[in-house]
Amino acid sequence: MLVPILIAILAAGALCVAYGVFVERRWYRLARYRVDILPAEGPDKLTLLHLSDLHVTAGSAKLARFLAGLPAADVTAVTGDIVGEPEAVEEAADMLRPVRGRFASYFVLGSNDYYAPKPLNYLAYFRKGRRRRGAKRGRAPELVARLEADGWVHLKNIRTCVSLDGLEVELLGLDDPHIDRQDLRVAPRHHPERFGFAIAHSPDPAPELAALGYDLAVYGHTHGGQVRMPVVGALVTNSDVPRRIVSGLVRMGRTYGHISPGLGTSKYAPFRFLCRPEATILELGRRPTATPAEPSAEPTTRVEPSAPA
User: Fold this and answer.
1) Cα–Cα distance for residue pair 70/183, rounded to 1 Å
2) Is the pLDDT of residue 102 over 90?
3) 26: domain CATH number?
4) 181 closest CA partner among 167, 162, 202, 197
5) How many Å apart are CA 218 and CA 199, to the nearest integer?
6) Residue 88 φ/ψ, nearest 5 degrees
7) Dihedral (CA of 83, 85, 89, 95) sign
8) Running DSSP on this structure, what letter comes out for residue 90?
9) Which tens digits make up the pLDDT trace of 151-206?
10) Is residue 162 within 8 Å of residue 116, measured between CB atoms?
11) What are the CA-CA distances from residue 295 to residues 22, 33, 37, 46, 71 (Å)?
12) In this structure, are residues 108 and 80 in contact, taking their beta carbons and an 8 Å threshold?
């Protein structure tokens, strides 16, 4: 009796792995959130397309088709790990060309953009404070140059002021916190009367950015856990954020943060389970007039993600 049970368990496990490798990791979807957070001055709405962790490798044709079919947005932000291998720099830049925002297109880099990936013991993700390993440098300068030539703005440890369709914004971009490249000395706000928007690869600095009074921040890196289990949820986050907020729209004080589940995986961990790859549109609307000093307590609308046609 025991042998048939063991065989059934192994078969079920093999089916789950096959599903994660051949189905779910390329089962892309688009999520939409409505957040009433814009000030009275400026536009009454603004759409933000948030992409992250594409991990583009040679021959990512299905991802290219998905990106090309996304709806146009006013602003696009890409929060790092754009390439999954140095050889894909040109392909990744071509893929991102159709998703540029009407008014602005921003990006930061992640560790996989700076360094070529290498195999890793999966159990290492469960260890706290695991040691960083040496890695071969990637082609980050070439990636940045190609994206900038297409009109993208690289926000590498910089805070600046911009205007987006009449919305006055104090904009912050941090280099990858996961590999200690961020410089929080640039983060303090100098113009709190402006709408504060922050972009970083990892959500590790989310508490600091909330304390500094940014209205909206977008992050990637966690892959939404990449492997989620019923009831338990994400097994790991690969960051300092709690597992319960590993992806989606969260709020810290007055700051809304969106943590993207990402669109790809490392080439050495090519699977997802109960955690579909996702692009997100944040539909930003004006704050309720009854409470002009604070954004709404919850997103007013959540349109459940669905696979694009």
Assistant:
1) 33
2) yes
3) 3.60.21.10
4) 202
5) 5
6) -100, 10
7) negative
8) H
9) 999 999 999 999 999 999 999 999 999 999 999 999 999 999 999 999 999 999 99
10) no
11) 41, 14, 5, 15, 26
12) yes
Sheet of 195-200: strands edge to edge? Answer: 158-164, 167-174, 195-200, 216-219, 255-259, 248-252
Helix axes 140-149, 89-96, angle to 10 degrees: 30
- What CA–CA distance (Å, rounded) separates 67 from 98? 7
SS3 content of the chain, % helix, strand, coil (to 5): 25, 30, 45
List Cβ neighbours of 7 (8 Å cut-off, separation of 6 or more): none
The total domain count for the chain is 1
What tokens does 208 get?
């600091």
Helix (H, G, I), strand (E, B) or coil at 16: helix
Q: What are the b/e assignments for 244-255, b being 16+ CB within 10 Å?
A: ebbbbbbbeeeb
Domain that holds residue 169: 2-306
3-state secondary structure of 182: coil
Q: What is the DSSP letter of 137?
A: B
What phi, psi does 211 have (nearest 5°)? -65, -30
**CB neighbour list of residue 164: distance below 8 Å, 6 or more residues apart:** 43, 46, 74, 75, 103, 104
Write the single-letter amino acid at 206.
A
3-state SS string over 93-119?
Answer: HHHHHHHCCCCEEEEECCHHHHECCCC
Let me know: does 56 contact 81? Beta carbons within 8 Å: no
Confidence bin at 104 (pLDDT 50/70/90) = very high
Length of the chain, in residues: 309
